[in-house]
Amino acid sequence: MKYSSKKFESDVKYYENSLRGKVNNKLLFLVCDLTNKKAFFSIAPLSRAVHNLDGELHVLVKHKESENFLVLKKVWNIYHDMRKGLETEKTKALKSFINEVNKRTKTKVFKNIFKKPELLLYSTEKGFTGTLDLEYKFSWYKKYRWNELVGTVNTLLKKGYDIKKNERLGISFETIPKKEDLELPLKDYLDSYSMAMAMALEARRLKANVGLGSSTNKFSVLANSVRTIDLMSTLIGCELDKEVDEEVFKKFKILSPILGAEKIELNDAGFGIHGKGYTGKMFFGESIGYPTLNKKSRWTSPGQMMLKDRYEAQTKYETRDPIMRYAMTETLPIDIFIETCDVDYEKIRKRSKKIKSILDKCDRIRVIGEEKNGLKTDFTVCLVSDDKKIRRYFIASDSDVTTKIDQEYYKATGIKSGLYANFPSGEAFVTPEKLEGLIVGDVVISIDQSYRLNPKQPLVIKVKDNKYTVVSGPKKILDKMKTTKDDAMEKIRNIEDKKALPVSMTKMYRRCFNYIGEFAVNLNPKAKLCDYLIVNEKIARMMHVAMGMGFEPDRKTLYHWDMVINSPRQKMDVYGVDSKHKNHWIIKKGKFVV
User: Fold this and answer.
1) In CA terms, which of 103, 319, 419, 441 is 20 to 30 Å from 148?
2) Residue 277: which region, alpha, beta or left (left: phi > 0; alpha: psi -120 to 50)?
3) Across-strand partners of 239?
């Protein structure tokens, strides 16, 4: 790889030796200055060392002192005084809030998230300092295609985000897990540090207010999140909901000015670089939930509330405008990130709109491949319900987060929803009203991460009345699907038990649990086969389907697995059929005819 594995392991070993006996089952909280590149690139080996020693990590990277961090420090100090038995206005307000949560949830575990991290470190000119002193170790880092990388993120910031002066941009990146937990290439995780830094520095040059963050990933949705992540999420959600007429939020409203929670900085835009795993379970959101102001529905996270995208069932009940827009990518190699993201977005959007205009005229779509190794993809996507009362429409753009409000959806519905995108981009997609047939996935599937599929041993699913069953596939993939679905169903049961969401929503989660949630035609001419779903699901002429959650408010559940079909290899025919039985061709024998 372009980075020296020997140097990286040496950097990791230094941190392991320095932290041994100090971080096991403990939390290290790191505050890093954005302009200190030595500190930033030292996070990679430091995070691997912390995880090797069975510790957890939470990282904040800002150019100036973070208001959010100042609020956290106030909370930790007040909680410390409360635990010591001090009776003050501050400790009484915090204790009253915690007690109300305990009463509401019938538990006594909520207090755990208020505990100060066992280790607290800050970046300085010479090294990390705080609970202990550590040197910077970044010998592994090597600058690679930097100018092209900066040019690519400039394109995203201007054409994708239209980032404005003084807007707050939050960038999330990945810490490095243990070797045994890392199935994707280490070099790709390390590449993502350059991507994050390039995005941050270029956004600063464009006068945006930039912050980066990361924390230890969890490998089950049922695992508790890092407690400071859970705390920050709770503070944001309760601050947004402090006017809600429920006792728990009334208690928080008293606590809020004591903490200075009104100063919490919320992002106008977000960019997430995702690897393997999940943030983990958030106690307050999944036990109580955050109501819409009219209390007609609830959210399980403030992030959902702030984004308020068109696909969420709660969006039509939420009277507040979206606060932010968001886009994501994966831990892509720099070469692939540059090649697939530095594209002509107007050209891709134009083709996507063309496909939408054709297929939105149709009642159903036929997808038929040639038989390969005894298997043949052959399915029908129904866009209109049997009683003709429901029609599903294609969504043409997955690359536009230029505004907080989805203008197209607002014009069509009068509902102000937020924008969400992928980079790289390039697909026209729809939530089928119904799908039936056989699907042969032979490229990649994304579950908790991307997994390559072998054409000689594809993942085959059969769909009847929009419910899928697995026919065959690699044992590793089938095992991962089972454990992930088991966790998702357990999470639904937990939410039902706690009544964190309306019954109508958890019923929908169950109803849609085995549904097909998406059908899409891929459009990015520069995307090529690789290890990552987010690229492969954009390869022009290929297509993908998703099991689980759909992109309509009535098709939500708790997982979404995209699976890519190699249309050129299977020599696929794809055409729509309108109400007059006229065919409208998109792909013939694996080649675009649009």
Assistant:
1) 419
2) left
3) none
Residue from 323, 262, 242 nearest 70 by CA: 262
DSSP state of 225: P
Cα separation, 558 vs 278, whole angstroms: 12
SS3 97: helix
- Model confidence over 238-285: pLDDT tens digits? 999 999 999 999 999 999 999 999 999 999 999 999 999 999 999 999
Identify whether the C-beta of residue 302 lies closer than 8 Å to the C-beta of residue 117. no
SS3 325: strand
Phi, psi at 175, each rounded to 5°: -75, 165
Write the CA distances from 123 to 2, 10, 34, 46, 133, integer angstroms: 27, 21, 10, 13, 10
- As a whole number of angstroms, the distance between CA 117 and CA 56 comes to 10
Question: Strand ranges (DSSP E) for 85-131?
Answer: 119-123, 127-130
Residue 423 per-residue DSSP state? S
φ and ψ at 215, to 5 degrees? -155, 170
- Which is it for the CA torsion 238, 241, 242, 246, positive or negative? negative
- Where are the domains positioned within the chain? 5-86+117-230+263-286, 334-592
pLDDT (tens digit per residue) in 316-351:
999 999 999 999 999 999 999 999 999 888 888 899
- Helix and strand counts by DSSP (H, E) for the chain: 17, 26
N- to C-terminal Cα separation, the chain? 40
Give the full edge-to-edge strand order of the sheet including 427-430: 427-430, 516-522, 543-548, 560-565, 444-446, 450-452
What average pLDDT does this structure show over 475-495? Answer: 97
Whether the pTM exceeds 0.90: the reply is yes
Do residues 572 and 589 touch, judged by C-beta distance below 8 A? Answer: yes
CA distances from 88 to 92, 169, 255, 493 (A): 6, 37, 12, 39
